[in-house]
From TrEMBL:
<dbReference type="InterPro" id="IPR001433">
    <property type="entry name" value="OxRdtase_FAD/NAD-bd"/>
</dbReference>
<dbReference type="GO" id="GO:0016491">
    <property type="term" value="F:oxidoreductase activity"/>
</dbReference>
<protein>
    <recommendedName>
        <fullName>Oxidoreductase NAD-binding domain-containing protein 1</fullName>
    </recommendedName>
</protein>
<keyword id="KW-0285">Flavoprotein</keyword>
<dbReference type="InterPro" id="IPR017938">
    <property type="entry name" value="Riboflavin_synthase-like_b-brl"/>
</dbReference>
<keyword id="KW-0274">FAD</keyword>
<keyword id="KW-0560">Oxidoreductase</keyword>
<dbReference type="InterPro" id="IPR052128">
    <property type="entry name" value="Oxidoreductase_NAD-binding"/>
</dbReference>
<dbReference type="InterPro" id="IPR039261">
    <property type="entry name" value="FNR_nucleotide-bd"/>
</dbReference>
<dbReference type="Pfam" id="PF00175">
    <property type="entry name" value="NAD_binding_1"/>
</dbReference>
<feature type="domain" description="FAD-binding FR-type">
    <location>
        <begin position="10"/>
        <end position="119"/>
    </location>
</feature>
<keyword id="KW-0520">NAD</keyword>
<dbReference type="GO" id="GO:0005739">
    <property type="term" value="C:mitochondrion"/>
</dbReference>
<dbReference type="InterPro" id="IPR001709">
    <property type="entry name" value="Flavoprot_Pyr_Nucl_cyt_Rdtase"/>
</dbReference>
<dbReference type="InterPro" id="IPR017927">
    <property type="entry name" value="FAD-bd_FR_type"/>
</dbReference>
């Protein structure tokens, strides 16, 4: 389990918004920063500071670190609300606008070090060893999607990664098409999607279930993995976090195998 770290923060980096897409109540932003001006781990967020708008706020990266490393770009997903910075993103933000960002957060997944690296005292979570269980609800998919893409870019896939992802409806599953495409091309990855409130169309029943993620769903997922080494990453609203942690513990995972970050 992880917690918000309010220690020393890195300096602000100027970023330019170079692309904007809207999917229902979610707006996707692509930002450009100077190459090598910042780095992040999959699962982390950025403080997002808009000139002339207070206060600043935080949004999780949904792109993998490799995009930033190769092109100096990163993606954010912002769900609509009347909170001033979020309202600006949805109603005033334009391509070419400049903002300031800085990386933060202790909730992340890292790939294992090279075989030649010296022994490390880091946890399995930080070294990226063993199977991975991802649990997401709503816009909480953002850091989870970053972790998923990063994991699947590894050179070897002897381990497995499972995703349970819930939205109020099928249309709220923002990256469902991309996730299903990743599953199609990666034998180590299995995704189960849930529509917690709205009925699922007949054409989508093969890959979306009706209802919420249950304790049974989590137990079945954990039982299909190497329980001793599995790491669970959870992101979603408060009630979802509490229930998923409880389900993971009931499935036999220890607290140090369960990772999430509370910012409220």
């Amino acid at each position: 389990m992880t917690s918000h770290n309010n220690g020393d923060k890195p300096p602000w980096t100027e970023a330019t918004i170079i692309d904007i897409k809207t999917f229902g109540s979610v707006r996707l932003l692509r930002l450009k920063v100077p190459l090598r001006s910042l780095t992040f781990e999959p699962g982390q967020w950025v403080d997002f500071n808009i000139p002339g708008v207070t206060p600043f706020t935080g949004y999780s990266m949904l792109s993998p670190p490799s995009l930033l490393e190769s092109s100096g770009e990163l993606d954010l997903a912002v769900k609509y609300s009347d909170y001033p910075p979020t309202l600006w993103v949805h109603e005033k933000c334009c391509v070419g606008d400049k903002v300031q960002i800085r990386v933060g957060g202790d909730f992340y997944y890292s790939a294992p070090p090279p075989a030649s690296s010296p022994p490390s005292s880091t946890t399995f979570c930080e070294r990226g060893q063993g199977d991975v269980l991802l649990l997401a609800a709503g816009i909480g998919i953002s850091p989870i999607y970053s972790i998923l893409q990063h994991y699947l870019q590894r050179d070897h896939h002897e381990d497995r990664i499972l995703l349970l992802y819930s939205g109020k409806s099928a249309t709220d599953l923002v990256f469902k098409d991309e996730i299903m495409e990743l599953e199609k091309h990666n034998s180590c990855f299995t995704a189960t999607l849930f529509s917690s409130q709205d009925p699922v169309k007949q054409s989508e029943m093969n890959h979306i279930r009706e209802g919420r993620i249950t304790e049974t769903d989590v137990k079945e997922a954990v039982s299909s993995l190497n329980k001793a080494l599995v790491q669970a990453f959870i992101c979603g609203p408060p009630g979802f976090l509490d229930h998923m942690e409880m389900f993971c513990l009931a499935s036999g995972l220890h607290k140090d195998q369960i990772h999430y970050e509370k910012w409220w």
